[in-house]
Amino acid sequence: MSSPTPLEPLIHPLFDPLFDPSTSTFTYLVACPSTLSAIIIDSVLDFDPATSLITTTTADSLLSLIRSQNYKIVKILETHVHADHLTASRYLQTKLAADEANGGIKPEICIGKRIVEVQKRFAEKYGIPREEWEGAFDRVFEDEEEFSVGELKGKVKHLPGHTPDHVGYLVGSNIFCGDSLFDPEVGSARCDFPGGNAHALYNSVQTLFSLPAHYKIYIGHDYPSPDSRSPQPYTTVADQKRLNKHLKDGTTKEQFVNWRQEHDSGLAEPKLLHQALQVNVRAGRMPRDGMLKVPLKMPGGWKL
């Protein structure tokens, strides 16, 4: 007797585009086809740095999609504390908890357990009160911890390198790798943020490459060249191993680390770095005083 075919999730944006062009971010909606229980991975708030205006157009479109598919959101997941966009996790949690269509469920906001060291680092840098970040996430996952999405099983994979808290989520034959890898023509993530480490990222990619060749690797961002192609949410393990411009099969750790460190030393900081970090270590909550801090840079140490 043949064994039953493993249950595979319904995954958006395969069915609907969930790509934010202003930050080049994919948000994933992953659902159990039997129960319509679902999770959200790496959501986005709209933020205009010129006016400091936060809007929810992207998040509201996600909510409309959830309602149209009759999904019940049970968890809102973050792969890491993002430095290039503000998370919509708290906004989505509030809206979904009040929505009768979500069955009275208040989805947990979840992240990997090393979030605490990242929160402490940036709380000190930006002067964030402890009561605004401590316990901000409803659940912090252990490495290899399993969780349920209806009849689906998910597993947490620690994938450090881009940031120390970085995790991926394995659901069926799919892994949502955040900013560990990108499309093969784009390559890999930068490792110059506090706690980032190119050696660790190389090892994390080997973890991804150890998965079966047909498994799909869903990426956090895509940066296609203008007019070359549309953003692509995933490639297979086999494609990444064969084609990734930074880390294909045969690339040694020494080669990758030397290139990554040299390349990262010349990168500009993300344009939303300071705003994103202060909101994201709070799990999407806004500062109680409504103020975000942006450090000044004085050339040559010049001061008033």
UniProtKB/TrEMBL annotation:
CDD domains: POD-like_MBL-fold (cd07724)
Gene Ontology terms: biological process: glutathione metabolic process; hydrogen sulfide metabolic process
Gene3D superfamilies in the cross-refs: Ribonuclease Z/Hydroxyacylglutathione hydrolase-like
Residues annotated as domain Metallo-beta-lactamase: 24-221
GO molecular function annotations of the record: sulfur dioxygenase activity
SMART domains with a match to the protein in the record: Lactamase_B
One Pfam match: Lactamase_B
InterPro entries in the cross-refs: Metallo-B-lactamas (IPR001279), Mito_Persulfide_Diox (IPR051682), POD-like_MBL-fold (IPR044528), RibonucZ/Hydroxyglut_hydro (IPR036866)
Highest taxon listed in the record's lineage: Eukaryota
Entry protein name: Beta-lactamase-like protein
Organism: Neurospora tetraspora
